[in-house]
Amino acid sequence: MAVDALTDVRGMRVGHATHTGGGRLTGTTVVLAPEGGAVAAVDVRGGGPGTKETDALDPRNLVRTVEAVVLTGGSAYGLDAASGVMAWLEEQHRGVRVGADPAHVVPVVPAACVFDLGRGGDFRARPDAVSGREAVEDAAASPPGGAVPEGCVGAGTGAVVGALKGGVGTASAALGSGVTVAALVVANAVGSVVEPETGALYGELCQGRVRYPEEDVHEAARRRLDEAARQNAPSPLNTTLAVVATDADLSKAQCRKLAGTAHDGIARAVRPVHLLNDGDTVFALATGARRLDTDDPLALNGILAAGADVVTRAIVRAVRAAESVRGPGGVWPSYGELYGAPGRR
Question: What mean pLDDT comes out for the span 188-204?
Answer without folding.
Answer: 93
